[in-house]
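re: ur question from yesterday

yeah so i grabbed the chain u mentioned. its 306 aa long if i counted rite. heres the sequnce exactly as i have it in my notes:
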Amino acid sequence: MEKYNKPPKTYQEQMELLVSRGMKVDNPNRALHYLSHLNYYRLAAYWLPFEANHATHRFKPGTSFDQVLESYLFDKQLRLLIMDAIERFEVSLRARWAYHLAHQYHNPHAHLDSAIFKQHIANPRWDHAENVAELQDTVQKSSEVFIRHLVRKYEEDLPPIWAICEVMTFGQLSRWFANVAKSSDRNVIARTYDYDEVYFVSFIHHLTIVRNFTAHHARVWNREFPISWRLPLSRPSGVVDSLNRQDGRHIYNTLATLACLTDTINPGNHWKKRLSDLIRSYPRIQTRYMGFPDNWRDLPLWKGKV
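ran it thru and got these C-alpha coordinates back, copy pasting raw so excuse formatting
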Protein backbone atom coordinates (compact mmCIF):
# COMPACT_ATOMS: atom_id res chain seq x y z
CA MET A 1 0.00 0.00 0.00
CA GLU A 2 1.20 3.50 -0.81
CA LYS A 3 0.69 6.68 1.16
CA TYR A 4 -1.92 9.11 -0.17
CA ASN A 5 -0.12 12.37 -0.92
CA LYS A 6 -2.34 14.21 -3.38
CA PRO A 7 -2.93 17.82 -2.32
CA PRO A 8 -6.48 19.26 -2.17
CA LYS A 9 -7.62 21.13 -5.27
CA THR A 10 -9.48 24.43 -5.39
CA TYR A 11 -12.85 24.58 -7.15
CA GLN A 12 -11.14 26.28 -10.08
CA GLU A 13 -8.55 23.49 -10.26
CA GLN A 14 -11.28 20.87 -10.09
CA MET A 15 -13.06 22.45 -13.05
CA GLU A 16 -9.83 22.76 -15.03
CA LEU A 17 -9.08 19.08 -14.37
CA LEU A 18 -12.46 18.09 -15.82
CA VAL A 19 -11.87 20.26 -18.88
CA SER A 20 -8.41 18.73 -19.38
CA ARG A 21 -10.04 15.31 -19.45
CA GLY A 22 -12.44 16.30 -22.21
CA MET A 23 -15.53 17.56 -20.40
CA LYS A 24 -17.26 20.58 -21.95
CA VAL A 25 -17.99 23.40 -19.52
CA ASP A 26 -20.21 25.92 -21.31
CA ASN A 27 -20.83 28.05 -18.23
CA PRO A 28 -17.76 28.13 -15.95
CA ASN A 29 -19.47 30.23 -13.27
CA ARG A 30 -22.33 27.75 -13.05
CA ALA A 31 -19.91 24.83 -12.87
CA LEU A 32 -17.91 26.52 -10.11
CA HIS A 33 -21.12 27.22 -8.19
CA TYR A 34 -22.15 23.56 -8.20
CA LEU A 35 -18.65 22.29 -7.47
CA SER A 36 -18.62 24.54 -4.42
CA HIS A 37 -21.90 23.10 -3.11
CA LEU A 38 -21.70 19.50 -4.33
CA ASN A 39 -18.60 17.58 -3.39
CA TYR A 40 -16.39 16.64 -6.36
CA TYR A 41 -16.58 12.98 -5.38
CA ARG A 42 -20.36 13.10 -5.10
CA LEU A 43 -20.54 14.28 -8.71
CA ALA A 44 -17.85 11.81 -9.78
CA ALA A 45 -20.32 8.93 -9.47
CA TYR A 46 -22.54 10.66 -12.02
CA TRP A 47 -19.86 11.30 -14.63
CA LEU A 48 -18.48 7.76 -14.40
CA PRO A 49 -20.78 6.45 -17.19
CA PHE A 50 -19.51 9.27 -19.43
CA GLU A 51 -15.88 8.17 -19.17
CA ALA A 52 -14.38 6.61 -22.29
CA ASN A 53 -11.44 5.26 -20.30
CA HIS A 54 -11.65 4.91 -16.55
CA ALA A 55 -7.89 4.42 -16.13
CA THR A 56 -7.17 7.84 -17.68
CA HIS A 57 -10.56 9.37 -16.74
CA ARG A 58 -10.94 10.65 -20.29
CA PHE A 59 -14.52 11.54 -21.17
CA LYS A 60 -16.45 10.45 -24.22
CA PRO A 61 -16.62 13.13 -26.95
CA GLY A 62 -19.42 15.61 -26.36
CA THR A 63 -19.69 14.99 -22.61
CA SER A 64 -20.70 18.19 -20.83
CA PHE A 65 -20.88 19.34 -17.23
CA ASP A 66 -24.57 20.09 -17.79
CA GLN A 67 -25.22 16.45 -18.73
CA VAL A 68 -23.58 15.25 -15.52
CA LEU A 69 -25.53 17.81 -13.50
CA GLU A 70 -28.78 16.62 -15.13
CA SER A 71 -28.04 13.09 -13.93
CA TYR A 72 -27.50 14.40 -10.40
CA LEU A 73 -30.68 16.51 -10.38
CA PHE A 74 -32.72 13.64 -11.83
CA ASP A 75 -31.39 11.30 -9.16
CA LYS A 76 -32.27 13.77 -6.42
CA GLN A 77 -35.88 13.96 -7.58
CA LEU A 78 -36.02 10.19 -8.04
CA ARG A 79 -34.91 9.68 -4.43
CA LEU A 80 -37.69 11.94 -3.18
CA LEU A 81 -40.21 9.97 -5.22
CA ILE A 82 -38.88 6.69 -3.85
CA MET A 83 -39.05 7.96 -0.28
CA ASP A 84 -42.68 8.96 -0.83
CA ALA A 85 -43.59 5.44 -1.97
CA ILE A 86 -41.57 3.76 0.80
CA GLU A 87 -43.30 5.92 3.40
CA ARG A 88 -46.74 4.82 2.15
CA PHE A 89 -45.71 1.18 2.26
CA GLU A 90 -43.88 1.35 5.58
CA VAL A 91 -46.80 3.02 7.35
CA SER A 92 -49.18 0.42 5.90
CA LEU A 93 -46.96 -2.52 6.85
CA ARG A 94 -46.63 -1.29 10.44
CA ALA A 95 -50.40 -1.18 10.74
CA ARG A 96 -51.04 -4.59 9.17
CA TRP A 97 -48.30 -6.35 11.19
CA ALA A 98 -49.49 -4.97 14.53
CA TYR A 99 -53.18 -5.52 13.77
CA HIS A 100 -52.78 -9.13 12.71
CA LEU A 101 -50.60 -10.26 15.61
CA ALA A 102 -52.70 -8.47 18.23
CA HIS A 103 -55.94 -10.03 16.95
CA GLN A 104 -54.56 -13.44 15.99
CA TYR A 105 -53.11 -14.00 19.46
CA HIS A 106 -55.62 -11.89 21.41
CA ASN A 107 -52.70 -10.13 22.99
CA PRO A 108 -51.95 -6.40 22.93
CA HIS A 109 -48.37 -7.31 23.82
CA ALA A 110 -47.90 -10.09 21.27
CA HIS A 111 -44.38 -8.84 20.59
CA LEU A 112 -43.38 -9.82 24.13
CA ASP A 113 -44.43 -13.45 23.60
CA SER A 114 -41.34 -15.25 22.35
CA ALA A 115 -43.44 -18.26 21.29
CA ILE A 116 -44.92 -16.19 18.44
CA PHE A 117 -41.46 -15.63 16.96
CA LYS A 118 -38.71 -17.88 15.63
CA GLN A 119 -36.40 -19.48 18.14
CA HIS A 120 -32.72 -18.59 18.12
CA ILE A 121 -31.82 -22.15 17.13
CA ALA A 122 -34.02 -21.86 14.01
CA ASN A 123 -32.46 -18.53 13.04
CA PRO A 124 -29.12 -17.84 14.76
CA ARG A 125 -29.25 -14.22 13.58
CA TRP A 126 -32.47 -13.64 15.50
CA ASP A 127 -32.77 -13.52 19.27
CA HIS A 128 -36.13 -12.44 20.64
CA ALA A 129 -34.79 -11.22 23.97
CA GLU A 130 -32.11 -9.11 22.28
CA ASN A 131 -34.65 -7.54 19.95
CA VAL A 132 -36.99 -6.78 22.86
CA ALA A 133 -34.06 -5.10 24.64
CA GLU A 134 -33.36 -3.07 21.50
CA LEU A 135 -36.99 -1.92 21.43
CA GLN A 136 -36.76 -0.99 25.11
CA ASP A 137 -33.80 1.21 24.26
CA THR A 138 -35.78 2.77 21.40
CA VAL A 139 -38.69 3.48 23.76
CA GLN A 140 -36.39 4.96 26.39
CA LYS A 141 -34.99 7.41 23.82
CA SER A 142 -38.36 8.25 22.27
CA SER A 143 -39.85 11.69 22.84
CA GLU A 144 -43.25 10.73 21.39
CA VAL A 145 -46.00 11.92 23.75
CA PHE A 146 -48.07 8.73 23.37
CA ILE A 147 -45.04 6.56 24.17
CA ARG A 148 -44.11 8.57 27.25
CA HIS A 149 -47.75 8.35 28.45
CA LEU A 150 -47.90 4.56 28.03
CA VAL A 151 -44.54 4.04 29.75
CA ARG A 152 -45.60 6.11 32.77
CA LYS A 153 -49.06 4.59 33.12
CA TYR A 154 -48.62 0.87 32.49
CA GLU A 155 -46.34 -1.74 34.01
CA GLU A 156 -45.54 -3.90 30.97
CA ASP A 157 -41.96 -3.92 29.65
CA LEU A 158 -43.07 -2.27 26.42
CA PRO A 159 -46.14 -0.39 25.15
CA PRO A 160 -48.76 -2.41 23.22
CA ILE A 161 -47.89 -3.62 19.74
CA TRP A 162 -50.01 -1.00 17.97
CA ALA A 163 -47.98 1.71 19.69
CA ILE A 164 -44.53 0.11 19.58
CA CYS A 165 -44.77 -0.42 15.82
CA GLU A 166 -44.86 3.35 15.35
CA VAL A 167 -41.42 3.91 16.89
CA MET A 168 -39.69 0.95 15.26
CA THR A 169 -37.16 1.74 12.58
CA PHE A 170 -37.89 0.20 9.21
CA GLY A 171 -34.97 -2.16 9.77
CA GLN A 172 -36.47 -3.31 13.06
CA LEU A 173 -39.88 -3.78 11.45
CA SER A 174 -38.28 -5.87 8.70
CA ARG A 175 -36.60 -8.15 11.25
CA TRP A 176 -39.71 -8.53 13.43
CA PHE A 177 -41.85 -9.36 10.41
CA ALA A 178 -39.36 -11.85 8.93
CA ASN A 179 -39.04 -13.67 12.26
CA VAL A 180 -42.70 -14.27 12.98
CA ALA A 181 -42.60 -18.03 13.52
CA LYS A 182 -45.59 -19.16 11.47
CA SER A 183 -45.48 -18.66 7.72
CA SER A 184 -49.29 -18.56 7.84
CA ASP A 185 -49.10 -15.36 9.91
CA ARG A 186 -46.61 -13.83 7.50
CA ASN A 187 -48.81 -14.88 4.60
CA VAL A 188 -51.94 -13.23 5.99
CA ILE A 189 -50.07 -9.92 6.06
CA ALA A 190 -48.30 -10.47 2.72
CA ARG A 191 -51.54 -11.35 0.94
CA THR A 192 -52.84 -7.89 1.81
CA TYR A 193 -50.45 -6.79 -0.93
CA ASP A 194 -51.03 -9.90 -3.11
CA TYR A 195 -47.64 -11.37 -2.18
CA ASP A 196 -46.44 -14.76 -1.08
CA GLU A 197 -44.60 -14.30 2.19
CA VAL A 198 -41.22 -15.71 1.09
CA TYR A 199 -40.87 -13.11 -1.65
CA PHE A 200 -42.39 -10.43 0.56
CA VAL A 201 -39.79 -10.96 3.30
CA SER A 202 -37.01 -10.74 0.71
CA PHE A 203 -38.42 -7.55 -0.80
CA ILE A 204 -38.83 -5.83 2.58
CA HIS A 205 -35.22 -6.58 3.46
CA HIS A 206 -34.11 -5.18 0.11
CA LEU A 207 -36.27 -2.10 0.66
CA THR A 208 -34.56 -1.33 3.98
CA ILE A 209 -31.29 -1.06 2.03
CA VAL A 210 -32.85 1.18 -0.61
CA ARG A 211 -34.35 3.35 2.12
CA ASN A 212 -30.98 3.77 3.78
CA PHE A 213 -29.44 4.94 0.51
CA THR A 214 -32.24 7.41 -0.20
CA ALA A 215 -32.43 8.71 3.37
CA HIS A 216 -28.69 9.44 3.31
CA HIS A 217 -28.87 11.19 -0.07
CA ALA A 218 -26.86 8.48 -1.81
CA ARG A 219 -27.14 7.82 -5.53
CA VAL A 220 -29.76 5.33 -6.75
CA TRP A 221 -29.43 6.10 -10.48
CA ASN A 222 -26.82 3.79 -12.01
CA ARG A 223 -26.27 2.01 -8.70
CA GLU A 224 -25.92 -1.74 -8.37
CA PHE A 225 -27.34 -2.68 -5.00
CA PRO A 226 -25.27 -5.09 -2.89
CA ILE A 227 -27.87 -7.87 -2.80
CA SER A 228 -30.61 -8.94 -5.16
CA TRP A 229 -34.01 -9.90 -3.79
CA ARG A 230 -36.16 -12.85 -4.76
CA LEU A 231 -38.43 -11.73 -7.58
CA PRO A 232 -41.99 -13.08 -7.31
CA LEU A 233 -43.09 -15.64 -9.88
CA SER A 234 -46.90 -15.56 -9.82
CA ARG A 235 -48.04 -12.62 -7.71
CA PRO A 236 -48.61 -9.71 -7.32
CA SER A 237 -50.50 -10.00 -10.59
CA GLY A 238 -49.96 -6.30 -11.23
CA VAL A 239 -46.18 -6.54 -11.47
CA VAL A 240 -44.84 -10.05 -12.22
CA ASP A 241 -45.07 -9.59 -16.00
CA SER A 242 -43.35 -6.21 -15.85
CA LEU A 243 -40.17 -7.10 -13.95
CA ASN A 244 -36.71 -7.24 -15.50
CA ARG A 245 -35.49 -10.72 -14.59
CA GLN A 246 -32.18 -10.19 -16.38
CA ASP A 247 -31.17 -7.36 -14.06
CA GLY A 248 -31.78 -7.82 -10.35
CA ARG A 249 -29.29 -5.29 -9.01
CA HIS A 250 -30.49 -1.92 -10.37
CA ILE A 251 -33.46 0.13 -9.18
CA TYR A 252 -36.03 -0.67 -11.90
CA ASN A 253 -37.60 -3.73 -10.23
CA THR A 254 -37.84 -1.80 -6.97
CA LEU A 255 -39.63 1.05 -8.73
CA ALA A 256 -42.02 -1.34 -10.48
CA THR A 257 -42.85 -3.06 -7.19
CA LEU A 258 -43.35 0.24 -5.38
CA ALA A 259 -45.66 1.35 -8.19
CA CYS A 260 -47.74 -1.80 -7.71
CA LEU A 261 -47.78 -1.41 -3.92
CA THR A 262 -48.88 2.23 -4.06
CA ASP A 263 -51.75 1.16 -6.32
CA THR A 264 -52.77 -1.40 -3.69
CA ILE A 265 -52.44 0.92 -0.71
CA ASN A 266 -53.91 4.00 -2.35
CA PRO A 267 -55.93 3.20 -5.48
CA GLY A 268 -56.16 6.17 -7.80
CA ASN A 269 -52.84 7.65 -6.67
CA HIS A 270 -50.58 9.32 -9.25
CA TRP A 271 -47.21 7.86 -8.22
CA LYS A 272 -46.67 5.97 -11.49
CA LYS A 273 -47.53 9.06 -13.50
CA ARG A 274 -45.15 11.16 -11.42
CA LEU A 275 -42.35 8.67 -12.11
CA SER A 276 -43.12 8.61 -15.81
CA ASP A 277 -43.32 12.41 -15.95
CA LEU A 278 -39.98 12.69 -14.16
CA ILE A 279 -38.31 10.43 -16.72
CA ARG A 280 -39.91 12.38 -19.59
CA SER A 281 -38.67 15.67 -18.14
CA TYR A 282 -35.07 14.44 -18.41
CA PRO A 283 -34.89 13.10 -21.99
CA ARG A 284 -31.11 12.70 -21.90
CA ILE A 285 -31.24 10.37 -18.88
CA GLN A 286 -30.59 6.81 -20.02
CA THR A 287 -33.01 4.57 -18.15
CA ARG A 288 -30.92 1.48 -18.96
CA TYR A 289 -28.53 2.63 -16.24
CA MET A 290 -31.38 1.94 -13.81
CA GLY A 291 -32.21 -1.48 -15.24
CA PHE A 292 -35.27 -0.34 -17.20
CA PRO A 293 -36.08 -2.67 -20.13
CA ASP A 294 -36.09 -0.92 -23.50
CA ASN A 295 -39.83 -1.57 -23.86
CA TRP A 296 -40.80 -0.71 -20.30
CA ARG A 297 -43.61 1.66 -21.30
CA ASP A 298 -45.29 -1.21 -23.17
CA LEU A 299 -45.27 -3.57 -20.18
CA PRO A 300 -48.61 -4.26 -18.41
CA LEU A 301 -47.76 -2.30 -15.25
CA TRP A 302 -47.11 0.91 -17.17
CA LYS A 303 -49.05 0.60 -20.41
CA GLY A 304 -51.93 3.03 -20.66
CA LYS A 305 -51.75 3.92 -16.97
CA VAL A 306 -49.15 6.65 -16.76
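noticed a couple things. The first helix runs from residue 11 to 20. also The beta strands are 51-53, 58-59.
anyway ttyl
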